[in-house]
Each structure stands twice: as C-alpha cells, then as structure tokens.
Design brief:
By secondary structure, the protein is an alpha/beta fold. It has helices at 10-21, 33-40, 51-61, 97-106, 126-135, 153-158, 176-188, 190-194, 204-235, 239-247, 268-281, 290-312, 340-350, 363-369, 379-383, 396-399, 404-410, 425-430; strands at 2-6, 25-29, 64-67, 78-81, 115-118, 140-143, 163-166, 169-170, 173-174, 199-202, 321-325, 354-358, 374-375, 388-391, 415-418, 434-436. Bound molecules: uridine-5'-diphosphate-glucuronic acid. Residues 121, 146-150, 215, 218, 222, 256-258, 260, 262-265, 267-268, 329-330 line the site of uridine-5'-diphosphate-glucuronic acid.
Length: 441
C-alpha cells in the first residue's frame, strides 16, 4: 500500500522505515531539511537499534523515500501523522501547533477515500476537533496511537503488543465508514495481525485515552516504587527486595518497578502533565489529581541522588571531582529530553562540583544543551581521579561490564552512588567502595 508519514522524528522515522520493511511504499515528510537529508542518505538522525538497517534496506529497495515537499503525500492511501506534541511553554497542556500544521498542510493533497491516521499523543477530544476538516476533502480521520519504547522502537512498531484504531463511531459503535477505515488499517498492519496481535477498534476518545492512560499508568508504577524507596530510606528496608517480592504477584508484575532517579524522556513527563491539564479543562481535574503526586515523587528522587552525593562527600561537592555515568534518559537511547541523568549532573555542577559526564550515545546531544559540563567519551578516562562516581543511566558499559576492582584502581575516592540500583552492591563493597543505592540500606 502507498503510505505517507508526516513528521520524521523518533515516531515518524521509525514508522516510515518499519512500514517499508513490511512491504509498503512509504514517503516520509518533514519540514526539517537536515533530518530529511540525513534520512534520504539512509542515515538515522538519532540512535535507535535496528533503524539504520531498515532505513538502508528501504531506500535501496526503492520503497522508502523522504522529502520536505508535502505534495509527495498525494496518491498515498493512508497518511500517518507522527509529529511532536511537546509541553506548552509556560503551561502543562500539550502544544498542538505541529499536529494542526501537519493536518492543514496535508489537506490540499488528500483524495476521496484516503485515511489520515493520527499517531501523535494528543489530548482527548483532538481527533473529534480535526475530523471535520479532514472530511471536507473526502478523506476520513482515524486515531491510531503508537506505543513504541525508545530503544525498542523498530521491534515495537513491526511487532506491537496491541494495535488500537479509533474510527468514526456513533453510539459507541463504528459507523460503516468506521468499519471500512478499520479494514484499511488491518491491511496496513497485516503482518502483525497475522501473528494474532490484538487489534482493538474503538471510537476516537477511547483511542486517545488508551495512549495517555497507558503512559499515566507506567509513570504511576515507577513513582509508586520510588515512594516505597522513600519509606525504605527511613526504615532501613531494601526497595529492590521489596520490588522483587511484590513483583512475583502476577497481578503486580516486576516490570517498571525499578526504583532510582525516576522517569524522564520525551513522553512520560509531558504526557502526565498534559493529561492533568486536559482533565482540568473537562472539569475532572480531581480524577487524575494523583498524577501531580506522581510527578512530584519523581522529581524528588533527583534531589535525593544529589543529596546522597553531597552527604557522601562530607557535606559539600564544591571543587570535588564527580564522575557521572550516563546522560541519556535511559539506556539504548541518545535522547536527553527531560533526562533525570543530565538533570542530576547539572545540579551537581551548580553546587560547584567538577563534573565529568560519560555516555555511550548521548554525549553529542548533551553537550549541545549543557556545554558547561565536561564530557569524556572513554569510560575509564572519565573515572580517573573521581572523588565520587554516580550512576544515572543503567548502560551495560557499567552495569554489567565494569569490574569494580578495576574502577577502584582509577578513582581517587571510593564512593559510588547507584542512582539506578543497577550495580552489584556486594561486589562494589568488596572492592572497597562505599556504596549508596536509592531506597537501599
Ligand atoms: C514510553 C512508554 O513506555 C511507551 O510505551 C510509549 O509509547 C512512549 O513512552 C511514548 O509515549 O512514546 P519511553 O519514553 O521510550 O516509552 O521510555 P520508557 O521505557 O517508558 O522509560 C521512561 C523512563 O522511565 C526512563 O527515564 C526510565 O529510566 C524510567 N524507568 C523505567 C524507571 O525509572 N524505572 C523503571 O522501572 C522503568
């Protein structure tokens, strides 16, 4: 099928390449010339495992192309909207400027029977607001949220755990046009559907809410365990053992119970805030008031990591060499948007520490935003002379591959703060380190 994808960031670029990899003919469109030039050459403009391969393969097969020219969308049967919905400057609500611009830009090139499929995360009610504009062209709007995780984006797109289609509906049932749209999406995602991936057909509002509630749930789960870490800290309990124990209950599950410096990135923080803002607009702020707490707990954990460093270094980090292991908001990503890791590094720098940051993928991005920090590519060089080491992103490079006995030969002060509870505390202690975890004795 011929497809267009408007917006070629994390979501759109991966979606375009993944759709080409399953046999569709895809054009990716973005206003950012630098991004399009890079993608057209088959170069992934960000770090995402597996993306480079499917980009190269798609371009050389002739099924995948990229352009800044919106008219290239003409002739495609489904037009995916994958532009960003950042937090508004000066507020919590989502900024829909890019979604509106993408839809408006697309309108002149739509034909009778086309589908416009929104993938961006939007406040509930957005699709209903856009549907009329799209319908005037003879095309139909559907909402088809995306659940990919950075670092697993290709796999999550080709082989998702569920597909959701918000289609035109009346009284809670798809209209005839809604049914037709669902069938077109089934054709788009035929490879996943052949593997029995659940395909949920619903109305616009439910589809939009599935997305934001999934992210709200994940954020809540992380903040729940981080709240337990706070209690553990004043009682001498160990939050990692607690998480293991409650995680054995299949109703709870161990995933997303990793206590540490909390969640960041381009999705969870802004999505819970936008959800709160939208609920307020709907007069139901109280229904998700707990998300304010989720946000507050999350941000407190960054303070806690900084406090641990200050205390461990005798009450001040001023003029101390602190090595920060990590900058990306999570491993297998070079994304530093709202990164708790970088936030901790910046705060330590603000307190007068001589901060050295290393990260296997995110240094270039981090340096652009925070040029005041020192960046070192080589892990061992970064560790050399450290008065304290703080782990803020759980990359294998230190979680798995760094022998604490080796680290001990490089540092000046044997203090390690494990902001992700990812190190083997016993091994680090055996190597002579004073080990501080998050919510661990
Ligand atoms: C998140 C969701 O997991 C995806 O399902 C969703 O599609 C995506 O947002 C989106 O809306 O586009 P992502 O932002 O890639 O995906 O990152 P996650 O893997 O969810 O991690 C988010 C943050 O939570 C990271 O900073 C991570 O370090 C932190 N985290 C995760 C914890 O602190 N503890 C955990 O146990 C798990």
């Amino acid at each position: 099928m011929r497809l267009s994808v408007i917006g070629c960031g994390y979501l759109g670029a991966v979606h375009a390449a993944a759709m080409a990899s399953i046999g569709h003919e895809v054009v990716g469109i973005d206003v950012d010339e630098r991004k399009i030039t890079s993608l057209s050459k088959g170069d992934a403009p960000f770090f995402e495992p597996g993306l480079q391969e499917i980009l190269t393969e798609g371009i050389s097969s002739g099924r995948l192309s990229f352009t800044t020219d919106m008219s290239a969308a003409q002739g495609a049967k489904v037009h995916f909207i994958g532009v960003g919905t950042p937090q508004q400057a000066g507020g919590y609500a989502a900024d829909l400027t890019y979604v509106n611009a993408a839809v408006d830009g697309l309108l002149p090139y739509l034909s009778e029977g086309d589908l416009v499929a929104g993938k961006s995360t939007v406040p509930v009610g957005t699709a209903a607001n856009l549907a009329g504009r799209v319908a005037e062209t003879g095309a139909t709007l559907v909402w088809n949220p995306e659940f990919l995780r950075e670092g697993w984006a290709v796999q999550d797109t080709v082989d998702p755990d569920r597909l959701v289609a918000g289609v035109p509906s009346e009284d809670g049932h798809p209209t005839t046009e809604g049914e037709r749209c669902a069938d077109v999406l089934r054709e788009v995602y035929h490879t996943a559907i052949a593997k029995d991936t659940p395909f949920i057909v619903t109305d616009y509002a439910t589809a939009e809410l599935v997305k934001v509630s999934a992210n709200a749930f994940l954020a809540t789960k992380i903040s729940f365990i981080n709240a337990m870490a706070e209690i553990a800290e004043v009682t001498g309990a160990d939050v990692t053992t607690l998480a293991d124990a409650i995680g054995h209950d299949a109703r709870i599950g161990r995933k997303f119970l990793g206590a540490g410096i909390g969640f960041g990135g381009g999705c969870l923080p802004k999505d819970i805030r936008a959800f709160s803002a939208r609920a307020e607009e709907l007069g139901k702020g109280e229904s998700v008031a707990f998300l304010r707490e989720v946000d507050a707990i999350n941000l407190r954990r960054r303070d806690r990591a900084v406090d641990l460093a200050v205390t461990a270094l005798g009450g001040t980090v001023y003029n101390k060499n602190v090595t920060v292991l990590g900058a990306a908001f999570k491993p297998h990503s070079d994304d530093i948007r709202d990164s708790p890791a970088l936030d901790v590094a910046v705060r330590l720098h603000g307190l007068g520490a001589k901060v050295t940051v290393t990260d296997p993928a995110a240094i270039e991005n981090a340096r652009r935003i925070h040029p005041q920090l020192d960046y070192v590519e080589d892990r061992d060089q970064a560790l050399t002379g450290a008065d304290a080491v703080i782990v803020v992103t759980e990359w294998d490079e230190w979680r798995r591959d760094l022998d604490p006995a080796h680290a001990a030969t490089l540092v000046t002060g044997k203090i390690v703060i494990d902001g992700r509870n990812c190190l083997d505390a016993t091994a680090w202690r055996s190597a002579g380190f004073e080990y501080h975890g998050m919510g661990r004795p």
